[in-house]
Amino acid sequence: MWTRVLVPIGIITVAALIALGLFNSRPQASQQPPLPPALLVDTVTASKQRTVFAVHTQGEVTPRTQTTLISEVSGQIVEVSSAFVSGGFFERGDVLVRIDPRIYETQLKRARAQVASARTQVATENALAGYAYQDWKRLRDLTTSGKPASDLTLRKPQVAQAIAGLESAEAELEKAQGDLTRTVIRAPYDGMVREKRSDVGQFVNSGTPLALTFATDYAEVRLPVTQNDLEYLDLPNPDSGRSIPVTLNARVAGEERTWQASLVRSEGVFDPQSRVLYMVAQVPQPYQTSPGNPEPLRIGTFVEAEIRGRDAGDLFAIPRHALYRNDQVWLVDDDDHLRGVTVNVVRSDKAQVYIDSGIDEGDRVCITPIDQPITGMLVRS
User: Fold this and answer.
1) What is the pLDDT of residues 45-92, one digit of tens each?
2) What is the DSSP letter of 122?
3) What CATH architecture is 43-51+313-380?
4) What is the dihedral of CA 342, 365, 318, 328, to 10 degrees?
5) Where does 55-64+216-312 sit in CATH, by number?
6) Cα 345 to Cα 321: distance, rounded to the nearest angstrom
7) What share of residues in the chain are helix, strand, coil (percent, to 5)?
8) Of the four listed, 12, 64, 150, 255, which is most buried by Cβ atoms within 10 Å?
């Protein structure tokens, strides 16, 4: 009976001892620290390129020549041109407005009559002066007096008065002719009506504004440029006749449109509030369309402008967000580790920075912003 109990216990004990021996004699497992994860980044290959700086600014399109048409005479408007509407185009010399001329035609007739009467008076006084001279001469011969004749004796004051009256009448005639001519208001240039302020049947006085017009030969854009940006512009000499190319861009009817302009002058003084210098760009024939650009550059359009600047030579251009602490970029070496270098930034704009030293041709520049980059950090691209 005891045999039956002890044999199983012995077997279990031996098996436990064997298992414990095997467990204690097992080989030690090798422990290796986990590899740090490689950060995924984007890189660009550094390559020097010929760089021409550009200054980006913006402004509103305005007319170069703008005029308020004003009536120089009084009267009722009896006729207006079909182009005399807001947005109407006209050519130089076109009749825009006619004012009732009847009063001025009557004044012209009166002025002509006064001139004729004054000429008759001058002729009469000249004849009387001749008779007076002959009478004085005969009297002198009879009296043998050497005393000269007075101006009054020879009727010189009367002749002068008659001549003055003729000049006054001729001046009134010239004024009457001018007033009659001014009843017809003609376009002073090729242009467009911006605002209509009068119409047929309206009585206007001398000095009444009739319309606001502008010429369509050129449009201008005032472009503010900061003092720092002036460093990158080669401003033209006003006497040289040279201009700087400017590209204007605007989104019109859902599409991006581009127009070419020329920077022709600066306004010469810094604005005391904004501390910017305004440049003026001109666009010839802004309302003239072409197959390449079917959209006119309308007055009042707000445009983005790119002014061509100085030739800066060969420079590295990288995205601006790849620059750290104003003068540092991170390179990725052949083993995919980060390495920080200090660079010399020639200029930066909203999109890019331009570098002339600190990196070499063919370097891989990390352009992914990293929160806390460390030298030797493993990355993958």
Assistant:
1) 888 889 888 888 999 999 999 999 999 999 999 999 999 999 999 999
2) H
3) Beta Barrel (2.40)
4) -20
5) 2.40.30.170
6) 13
7) 25, 40, 35
8) 64
